Amino acid sequence: MFLKNTVAAIALTVAAGTAMADCGISEGRVSIVGNEFPAIQTVGAGAMACANDAVEVSTNLTADHQTINVPGMQGNPAEYTSAIVANSSIVALINEDVIRPLDDLIAAHGQDLKPNQIVTINGQAMAIAFMANAQHLVYRSDILEQAGVEAPTTYEEMLAAAEAIRAAGIFENPIGGPYAAGWNLAQEFNNMFLGFGGQHFESGTANPTVNSEAGVKALEMMKALSEYMNPDFLTHDSNATNAEYRAGNTALMHMWGSRAATLVEAEGVPQEVIDGFAIAGPMTVGGGDTPASTLWWDGWTVAKNISDADAEATFIALMNGINPSILEDGDVTTQAVWLLDGYEPTDAAVGGFDAANSGTAPYPMLPYMGLMHTALGAELTDFMQGNESAEQALADVEAAYTAAAKENGFLQ
Amino acid sequence: MKHKTFFWFFLPTAMAMLVFIAAPIVSVIMQSLFLPHEAVLIQVENCGPFGCTQQTSIDQEATQALRDAAPMGRFAGLEIYFDRGHLATAEVAAAWRNSESIGAFFGELGNLPFYRAMAFTLTYTFTVTPLLIALGFFIAVGVNSVTRQIRGFLIFFSLLPMIVTPLVGSLILFWMIDARGILGNLIQFLANDPDLSLKASTPLMWISLIVYGIWSSAPFAFVVFYAGLQTVPQDTLESAQIDGASRWQQIRYVLVPHLMPLITFVALIQLMDNFRVFEPIIGFSAQAHATSLSWIIFNDLGGETRQLAAAATTSVLTVLCVAILLTPVLIRTWRDFKGKA
Fold first, then answer.
1. pLDDT digits over A247-299, tens only?
2. CATH number of the domain that A117 lies in?
3. Which of A177, A285, A392, B241 has a Cα-to-Cα distance from A83 of 20 to 30 A?
4. Does one domain contain both A336 and A367?
C-alpha cells in the first residue's frame, strides 16, 4: 500500500515534471504539505504541473502532515507555502495564526470557485475546500447474503449481523474498524458519541461534557462491537483495517469515504472480495436520527509568513490542482466526493453522499477540540481492554483534557 | 598540558556544547515554566461546504495583544510540574486518602499518565539493561573463542540488530508477532490457543518490547566487550589454566573483573538509553499497553494542538529521572577514580 502510493507519487511527479502545464505563474515558490490519500495525491500532482524554470513547486504528502504543518509555517518566511487540511486540522493553523485570508486572491484568481468551496471564518475566507469526506459502512454483500442478513442501517443491526455471521461459522471476527489507540480510537468515540446525541463541550465554553449518559452508551457500544473484532483492534489504524478487508477477513466495517472508494483496487485482492465489495451510508445508533459519523471537508490554505508573490503562485498552482478538468479522468472521479464543478457522484460516493444528506454533524471546529481528541485517544484504551469502567475512563478523559486546556489557556 | 594550551584545545568543544546542549536545555526549562496566554474566545460565524454555523474561535487580535505584552507567556512556576499530566501531586494525595489497600492505590496511580509511563519505563530499563549486558558478554566470549576464519562473518552477523534502524527493526518484529505473522502463528500453535494474540495482551506486549530491547541493544554491549577481550593479559589467563581453572572459573575470576570498567560503562549508557525507550512503542503500536516519558512528549507534540509547555515539562522530568537513575553508577565510578589516584 505504502510502496504503491510512493511509486504512484513518484510516477505522478515525473509525469507532472514533463507535462509543464502553463499556469501563468511568472515567479514564486510553492511548497505544499498535506495528507497522503489518493485524492490529495491528485491535487498535489496538479499543483506540481505548474512548475517551470522560474517557479519551484514541491509537495510533502504524508500521514504525519499535522505534526509538521504548524512548525513548518511558523517561520518567516515559512517553509510550507500551503497546508492541505481538514476541518479538524485547520483549527491548529488558525489558533497559531499562520494562514492568511484569501479574499484578495479569490477576487483575482478564484472566479471559478463555487461559493460552498470557500471556507470563511468570521467573514474571512481562510481555506478552499475541494472534497467532502465522511466515515460510513463498507461491507461484503456476498457474506451478508450467505448469513441471510441485510446491510445494517443501525449499529444494533450491525451487532446482530455480526452475530449471524459468527453463528453461521463464516468469520469468527466479522467486524473491522479503525480502533487503533490514539487519534483513530478517539474519532470512533466522537462518531458514536455524536450519534447518541452527545455534546463534547458546554455550549460557548471549553468545559468538557463527555462524561455523560451519551458518553457511557457510546463506550458500551464500542466495547460490544470490539467483541466481534480481531483481538488486535487497538493496533489497527485505517490502513491496517483496510488491509484486513482486502485480505478477506472482514465483512462489516466503518471506513473513511476517501479510502473506501479505491479499497479493492490494490494488487492481490481476492476476486470474491472485489465482487462482494459494497458501500452504504453511515449507521445510526440508539434509535437516534443523526448518523454516528462526522462530516469533513478537505481543502487548502495559504501561509501567512510568505511574500505576496509566493502566496499568489501557491494559490494559482493549487487552483490548477483542483481544476474541474481533473474529473475527466475516471479514476480521479471515484477518489472522493469532489466539491468541484461538474462532479457527478459515482457508486463509490454513495456513502459520503448519504452521510451529507442524512444530517450528519460536521466535526466540531473548535479551538480546544484537538486537546479533547488527544485526551480521548490516550485515556479510552483502559476501558477498551476491560481494565476500568466507562465512567472511570470518561472521568479520566475529562481530567486529562482539563489539565491540557488549563495549560493552553482555554480554561482557568 | 599547560592551562593555556588546554583552554584553546577545549574552546571549540565548549562552544559547541554551549550552543547545542546547554542552550536547548535552558530553553526547555524556560518553556516548562511558562504557559501560553489565555485564549480570548469569541463567537463567530463560520461557513463552509456544510453551511454556516455560530462557533467559538480565538480572537486573534486580542490574543496577539496579550502575546505582544508578555512574549514569554504566563509565568506558571512549577504549576505544570505538579498538574495531572505530570507529577499529579493532588491526584496522588487523593488516591492515597481514598484507597483502602496498597494495591488499590497503585491501581489509581496507573490511571495517571506519568506513573503509567514510569511503571513500564522502569520495568523495561531494569530488565533490558542487565539481560543485554549478559547476552552481549556471552556473544563476545563466544565470538572471541571461535577460529579467526569465521570471526569476521560472526561479528557482522551479531552487529546486524544495531545496523537495522530501530523503527524498521521494531516494525519487522511487529509484523512477525501479528496473530497472522510467522512468530504469532508459532506461539498460537505452541500454546494450542488459536485466539492468542501478543498485541491484545498487556503482559505479552511488555515481554515483546523487552525482547526487542535486548535484541536491538545487545550488539552494542557485544562490540564493547569484544574490544575489551582483546586486551585481556594472556599470562593471567594461562596461569589460571595451569592452576586448573575451568572455563567458567576463567570467565568468573579473570574476564569479568578485567571487563568490569567496561560493564559499568555499558550499564551507564544503556540505563540512559533504555529509560528513554521510544521507537519500539511506536513501531509496535503499543501505546494502549505501554507508554514511556518519551512517548508522552511525542504525544503532546503530535496532537492537532501542540502542547509545548507540557512536553517541555516532561522533558525536564526525563532529564531529572535519568540523573537520579545514574547517580549510583556515577558515585561508583567516582570512588574507583579516587581509589586509583
1. 999 999 999 988 887 788 888 899 999 999 999 999 999 998 999 999 999 99
2. 3.40.190.10
3. A177
4. no
| Beta-carbon separation of B288 and A94 below 8 A | no
Q: Which helix (H) or strand (E) holds B44?
A: strand B41-48
State the pLDDT at residue A18.
40
Is residue A79 included in any domain, yes or no? yes
Q: Where are the alpha helices (DSSP H) in chain B?
A: 3-17, 23-33, 60-69, 79-82, 89-98, 102-109, 113-145, 148-163, 166-176, 182-191, 202-229, 234-242, 247-250, 256-275, 279-283, 293-302, 308-340
Note whether residue A412 is domain-resident.
no
Q: Which of chain A's residues have a Cβ under 8 Å away from the Cβ of B302?
A: 67
Same domain, A286 and A385: yes
Task: Say whether A407 and B80 touch across the interface (CB within 8 A).
Answer: yes
d(CA B174, CA B170): 6
Residues in chain A within 8 Å Cβ distance of B53: 362
According to DSSP, residue B22 is labeled I
How far apart are the CA of A312 and the nearest CA of chain B, in angstroms?
A: 22
A117 chain-B contacts, CB cut-off 8 A = 49
Torsion of CA B131, B132, B137, B140, to 10 degrees: 140
**Are residues A248 and A140 part of one domain?**
yes
Q: Is the CB of residue B54 less than 8 Å away from at least one CB of chain A?
A: no
**SS3 call for B198:** helix
pLDDT tens, per residue, chain B with 341 residues: 678 888 999 999 999 999 999 999 999 999 999 988 888 888 888 888 888 888 888 888 888 888 888 888 889 889 899 999 899 999 999 999 988 888 889 888 888 999 999 999 999 999 999 999 999 999 999 999 888 889 988 999 889 888 888 888 888 888 898 888 888 888 888 888 887 888 888 999 999 999 999 999 999 999 999 999 999 988 988 999 899 989 899 999 999 999 998 998 999 999 999 999 999 999 998 998 999 999 999 999 887 788 889 999 999 999 999 999 989 888 887 887 787 65
Instruction: Tell me the β-bridge partners of A298.
Output: A86, A131
CATH superfamily of B125-290: MetI-like (1.10.3720.10)
**In this structure, are A305 and A211 located in the same domain?**
no
Residues in chain B with CB shorter than 8 Å from the CB of A118 are 47-48
B178 to chain A, any CB pair closer than 8 A? The answer is yes
Residues 216-235 of B with CB under 8 A from A: none
- Based on the fold, state whether residues A182 and A282 are members of the same structural domain: yes
Q: Total structural domains in chain A?
A: 2
Whole-number Å distance between alpha carbons of B208 and B198:
8
CB A82 within 8 A of CB A32: yes
Read off the pLDDT band of A15 (50, 70, 90).
Answer: very low
Check if A280 contacts B (Cβ < 8 Å).
Answer: no
Residue A7 has pLDDT above 60, yes or no: no
Cα–Cα distance, B113 to A242 (Å, whole number): 31
The answer to whether the CB atoms of A371 and B60 lie below 8 A apart is no
Same structural domain, A222 and A336: no
pLDDT at B132: 96
Residue A267 sits in the same domain as residue A403 = yes
pLDDT of residue A348 exceeding 90, the answer is: no
Chain A interface, mutation test: which of B304, B306, B313, B314, most A Cβ atoms within 10 Å?
B304
Where in the sequence is the domain holding A173, given as residue range(s)? Answer: 134-294+354-407
A390 touching B, CB under 8 A? no
> Does residue B101 belong to the interface with chain A, where contact is any CB pair within 8 Å?
no
Is-contact A50 A57, C-beta < 8 A?
Answer: yes
Contact A400 B84 (CB under 8 A): yes
Residue A410 has a CB neighbour count (10 Å cut-off) of: 26
Is A306 a member of any domain?
Answer: yes
Q: Is A186 on the interface with B (CB under 8 A)?
A: no
Residue in B56, B83, B284 nearest the CB of A367? B56
**B307 vs A: CB within 8 A:** yes
